[in-house]
Design goal:
13% strand, 8 helices, alpha+beta, 289 residues
Length: 289
Amino acid sequence: MTGFGRGEITLNGLTITVEIRSVNNRYCEISMKLPGLFQPMEQELRDLIQKQVDRGKLSVNVRVEMPVGDSITPSFDLGAAKALFVQLNALRDELKLDEPVGLNHLLRFDSLYQSKDSDGFDPATKAVLIDAVNAAIVSLKKMRKEEGDHLQADLTERLNVIESTCAQIGALSKDRLPEAKKKMTDRIQALLDSDQVLDAGRLELEVALLADKLDITEEIVRMGSHIAYFRKAMESSEPAGRKINFLIQEMHREVNTMGSKANHSSIAHLVVELKEILEIIREQIQNIE
């Protein structure tokens, strides 16, 4: 789901700002932009976010403002820069490029920046970073919750339409058996000679077999069960996106069976409407947790 969250924590002149942007995605994918100082904590931050966010393509941006003269201000690795300069020139010659290697090229390599504290940073700085990330997650989830409420209302309306459409199909299905019986009787009688008598017992057997083929009661009942479970899943506080995705597949299967049994224009049209609604829901639920 789409959303934006921001967390900013200040302690003893140190300010850390974390911004998280989220767009729709079936899985949880995280891209991070961290200052060199915080690079060692990247995996820890990923784990922290993934424990609280189940789905979405997340862009995480961390900014830090250090107190003036702080001992952990990053420095530039001059030796590494010289070695990289030589390598880039060799690459330029190999590729026969005219553009000279400049300072702007070297400054793009984060590996050239290093903290004066080779072990990273003190526990207080780490705590500020964690608090800022958590604050951003809370802000993000609040915004996503608001979007989720709107989506839930829309899905509820679509489920109501599915329910009423299934009721129409069920009513049409019940009216089809007498009609099918009359058509079968007329066709058989037309094929018989005028002096032959229609075997009522055989006709009833054929009608019973036909009724079994046309009966979609089981599909209607299962659809009702799926709709009830869908509503229950939306009310749950647990992530339900993947469960609902599987449920939609089952609902598609029931609707397809109705269509194959239909052999009736009105029912066929209603089945098409159900498929359209289910496809819309399927696309929407790819974005929810």
